[in-house]
Every structure is written in C-alpha cells, then in structure tokens.
From TrEMBL, chains A, B, C, D:
Transmembrane segments: none annotated. InterPro entries: Homeodomain-like_sf (IPR009057), HTH-type_TetR-like_transc_reg (IPR050109), HTH_TetR (IPR001647), Tet_transcr_reg_TetR-rel_C_sf (IPR036271), TetR_C (IPR011075). Residues 12-72 form the HTH tetR-type domain. Keywords: DNA-binding, Transcription, Transcription regulation. GO terms for molecular function: DNA-binding transcription factor activity; transcription cis-regulatory region binding. It comes from Microbacterium terrae. This is Bacterial regulatory protein, tetR family. Residues 35-54 bind DNA. The lineage of its organism: Bacteria, Bacillati, Actinomycetota, Actinomycetes, Micrococcales.
Length: 187, 187, 187, 187
DNA sequence: CCCTAAACGAGACGGTACGTCTCGTCTTTAT
DNA sequence: ATAAAGACGAGACGTACCGTCTCGTTTAGGG
C-alpha cells in the first residue's frame, strides 16, 4: 500500500534540473552574474520553489557545486600501497579536473560563495575539506606515516584554492610540484 | 619644480578616507553587504567620485585591502640567515595578523572580490602573491636552497587562503605546522 | 466569468496612489523637482513598479494629470441650445479650474512633459485636445454653426496654454474675452 | 573716453558662441538632453564661465532662443493700413518660421524652460508676448479698431503655442484660419 | 617693464536623480 | 499540499548631469 499524501507531489525532477542549470550558469557567466530567475526559468521551476529547497542564492551555488557533481574526487581512491604515488595521482586528477577554464570558474563560484557566506563555507568544509582530510588521515594510517595528515590536507587544499583564485595556469602546473615537496623525502 | 595641472586638485584626503572606510566596512559587515553609498557617505565623498577612481565595487574592495594596509607582511624581511626560522617567523606573523576575526573578514572580502572579478584577482596576484614569491625566491637564493621557491610560495599562500576561507581556528593553528613540513628536512 | 491569471495580481491600489501622489508633487514642487523615489515612497510602492507601469518620468506626470483627474472638463457638457453660452460656461469652468496656483502648476507640469517628450505630447493631444475638438465639433453641428470647429478649438486650447505658461493672472482674466471674441458675431 | 577696467576682458566671442551652440543643441537633441558640458566644450568656453553669465541651464536656453535669434518676428512690421492683411501676413511669417521641425524644436525648448522655471517664463513674456501685444495694440490704435488688443494677442500667441507643443502639422496649417476668424467680421 | 587684478580654461568635486537589476516575499490559480 | 506564474517592496548598482570650487593661465590696465 503506497500511502500517498493528498496534493500535488514535490517536483523532484526540477530539483536536480535546478542544480544542473545552476552549475552551467556558474561555469559560463560566473557566480556574481548567476540569477535565480534564470535558474528557475531554464529549469522549468518556480522561483519560490528554489527558496523552499535552499535558503539563499549562495546555498544554491554551494549545493550545485558540491551536491554530487564536484569535479574533484575527494578520495585517494585505490590505494596502491605507495602513499606518495597515491597523492600524486589524486592531485593530478584534481588538477586535470580544474584544467578546463569552465570547471575553474565553477569552483571559483563556490569560493566566492564561501567567502561571503558562512553557510557556504561550512558546506565547503563538510563536503570537500573534511573528506579529503579523512582520506589522507586514513592513507597515512595505512602507510604508517608519522606526519600530521591535517597539515598535509591543508597544503593540498590550499594549493588548489590558490591555483583557482589566481587564474594563473603556471600555478596550476606547479600543483604536482607541491605534492612532490610535501610527500617528498621520508615517505 | 612641482609642475601641477590647472583645475581643482584631486581630493587625496577623501581618497584615503574612502579606502579606510571601505576597509572598516568589509571587516564589520562583510564584502557582500558593503555599499558604495555608505562608503561615500562615511568618507564625506561623492558617490560618483568613487567611480572616478575605481571602476567597480570589487576594485575598491581589492584596493582597500591591498593599497597599503595589507595585514600580511609581504616579506621575510630581516634575514636571520636561517631560512627555516625566517619562514616560520613570517608565517607566524601572517597567522597572527589574520587571527583577529575582523582581519580575517577583511581578507575574506578580498578573496570574494578576487573570486568574482578578474581585475581584483590580478591585483591580488600583483600585490600579494608575487611579492611573496619574489621574497621567497630571494631567500632561497641567499640560502643556497635548491628547491623551487614558487612551489613553496604557492603552499604558504594557499595554506593562508585555506585558513581564511574556512573560518576554522584549527586550520589557522596548523599554519605553523605547514611551514615545518615544507621547510623541514634538508634545511 | 472572470477569467484570471495565476500569480499575484497587480497592485491597482498602489497604482492609483502613485498617480495621486505624483499629482500632489507636481502641484507643490513643480515638474522638474518631482522625484520618482519620492512618488514611490509616499505611495508605498516600489520604485521599479513605477517603471513597470510607465516607461519614464514624463509618462507618469502626463498620466497623473490626464488619467482621470484633469482639472478641465473636456466637454461642453449640457448643451443649453445656445452655443455661445455653452462655450462661455465651459471656458469659465476651465479658467476657474486653473485659478488655483496649484492647479496651474499641475497643468504646467503636463506642459513641461509634453514639451520635452513626444509621448507625453501625444497623450496631451489624445486626452485633452482631441476631446475638446470633438466636443466643439459636435456643438457646432448641433447648432448648425458654419465655422471650422478645429480652429475654434485651437484658439480655446491655445489661450488656455498661454494663460498657464505665462503665470500672469491678467491673461487668465482675459480668457472669457477670448470666448466672446471667438464666438461673437454670427453665433 | 572708454573707461575700462584692468584685467582680462570678458570673452564676448565665447558668449555669442555659447548661445549659438546652445541653440543648435536645443534644435537637434531637444531641451532635456542639452548638456552644459557640451555647450561649453563646443563653444570653447569653460563651464564655470557659463554660470558667470547665466544663473542656470533654463536661463541659457531661454536666452539662446530669445537673445536675438527668435524665429518669430515680434512685429506686424510694415503696416499696410489693412489690419487684417497685416495680421495675416505676420501669422503667415510666424507659422513659416516654425514650419521647419528644428525651429519648432527650438521653440519647444523655450516652452519647456518656461514651463519649469519662472525666470524663463518671465523672459518669454518680456521678449515675446509683450512685444506682440504692444505691436497689436499699436496696430489696433492706428486702425481705429475697437476690440481689446490684448485678447487678440493672447489668441495669436496661444495658437502658436498650441501648434508647437502639439507637434501636429495640421494645427500649424490652421493658424491662418485662426487669424481669419479673429480678425474676421468687422475689420 | 613689471605688477596687479579681472576674467578665463580646465577639471575634480559633492550631491542627486535616473533607469536597471536582482533579491527574497507574497498572492494567485492550477495540479 | 505543493507547484508554476508572476507582481511586488526593497535597495544597490553604475551613469549622467548639475552647480560649485579650486587651480594655473591669460590679458589687460596702472605704476
């Protein structure tokens, strides 16, 4: 017996569509020029409905980047047993994911949201930084590495942020050097 | 011989006042809620005058943080001869300068401006990242250190950015650990 | 069956309030010093809403004078059978309606709008001149008068304009003489 | 004995140039869009100098139309002895002077200035209406006409105003009919 | 021949209104 | 009950212009 409420059912399709549209807009026009009216129109969703799902524009942008479509894999994934190689691989993936100018713009939008809204910053921490930190912690433990994984996580995340906010391709190219330096000698 | 133009001279007092006021506002209310009208009023300056000096709100915020009042010392300054100690000292200073919640808000405003405006990002690069990179380059050269100073600079700057955008005090406390890790082994 | 659209209905109360407020402002401070911001505030209406209803300030002023509150009765009204007496009565009414300095200011605002904006001029023609011309045409036809009613209408309207733009009370007093001269001999 | 002050003499060339330029601008772009900055630049005159000569923008526009370049001859001029023919000739001249769309725009600018500024209205009265009234008064006296010349003057001036503010060519064509009606029967 | 002083051009200023944009809310009808 | 539609109040944005003020400059007498 499917117990169903009376009334019109929630538009779960529209929710996903809104996030996809928002993501495309952040990519193409940049965070500041994203408009809720345009998200609603393109997603075929009422504008008020967006406010039923998220409390503000910043929240939508943060959600659309983090919800499930983050271009950075949060995990070291398949541990080859070689910690250094794992980190290098992850960083290479992440840098590649950010190589496209549009993905960079997307992540920059998240950064803008986080810089001006504490809730978005919390989301960034919970959905990006913390998983990375935990993954590195696990990897360190598995490898018996003595260092502080949180510090290493800060470095890697910070280097990514720096490469994104600076739109400098050279900084992006140096990311792999960051891993080599951080993970270098004793690992 | 000061050769001067005809016409009323620019109101350099007002210009400085505008920057100071803007800085205070970014600190207290956050970048998004800063209003040019309020900057103008508090600084005793016409609103149009702000647009005569800077092309946009982002530019004003970037300028007010970077112009001359950057809370981060861009230089390793007095080289003690010990590269590692110098970096530690600089990072400690920078972390302290960002310790106050208001300074953190100030820098976060710059970050928001840079994330949503390429000109502000350029200013950030020119006024913050590049000096730091050059200073570290010089310090590495003086100490005969073989590493890539740009990578080290990326790490330090990135760790700062991360500590700022994340409002997490723990991340701030880990900054000194970042230096220890980066400058650790061979120095 | 009132077929109605979805969505919040237009704020017709506010619309009427805006016109009333605009009219009062034109009267008291004069067309040039009327501010849309003040109209909006006093009418309890958003400023943008004014632009949703009218395309410009001139249009609002033209509308507020003409919409339904024109101080000049556009018709000869009750035909007494005596064309000359009807015209005299109408002109006396119109002159009286303009006797107050504030009504004069109101109409002068319309004139300023019409002089600097073709749309306002069209509105003036459609809402004031044409009805008067038509009324006189009808009156001439009913009375079997052979003259060109358009010429007479031009004269009466023009004399009113002259009395208004010149702020001279003597010109106002001569208006009845205008009717006597125009309608004089053969009528 | 030319008593002359020391100091640089007023730039009377620039003054005339400013009026000419202002007149051209009123003609081409309309009163509302005339800019003092543009008048000053085109006339090769400092902006402040305009304010040394006239108290406001309205005053400049009024001056530039009335100063010496009024397109309407204020006089019946050569009295042929036939009052009706004189009036017809004058009205025909005036209508012709206003026939060009640019002259019409010029006069409409004066009207806009007069409608929103009492000083401009005074200038209009003193420089246009009063001379016409006086000329008609003189003509009536010379012809021994019994009517009130002020009323006739009001009618003729008003009809001109009406033809100008209404941009309707038909109203312009009816001007001669106005004269015929006013001057018709007993003259 | 300098000197004083009036008028000047240039141009930045404080202020204010404009018309546009977007936000987040509110109110209606439709599902 | 929830949605789409859509108008709304609020308020910041960036532009334009006004009328003022402050300079350095020109151009004439007057000493």
């Amino acid at each position: 017996m499917t117990r169903s409420s009376p009334g019109r059912p929630p538009n779960s399709v529209g929710r996903a569509a809104a996030l996809t549209v928002a993501r495309d807009l952040v990519r193409t026009v940049g965070y500041e020029r994203v408009t809720l009216a345009e998200i609603a129109e393109r997603a075929g969703v009422g504008r008020q409905t967006l406010y039923r799902w998220w409390p503000s524009k910043q929240a939508i942008v943060a959600a659309c980047v983090l919800e499930d479509v983050l271009p950075v894999q949060p995990m070291v994934a398949d541990s080859s047993g070689d910690l250094r190689a794992d980190l290098r691989a992850w960083m290479a993936d992440s840098a590649a994911a950010l190589a496209g100018d549009d993905s960079s713009a997307l992540f920059r939008g998240l950064l803008a949201a986080a810089a001006s809204d504490a809730h978005a910053a919390d989301a960034l921490e919970a959905r990006l930084s913390r998983p990375i930190r935990q993954a590195i912690t696990a990897a360190f433990a598995a490898a018996g590495h003595p260092g502080d994984p949180a510090v290493t996580a800060d470095i890697l995340i910070g280097a990514l942020l720096n490469a994104i906010v600076t739109r400098d391709p050279a900084a992006r190219d140096r990311l792999i050097g960051v891993v080599d330096l951080v993970a270098a000698p004793p690992l």
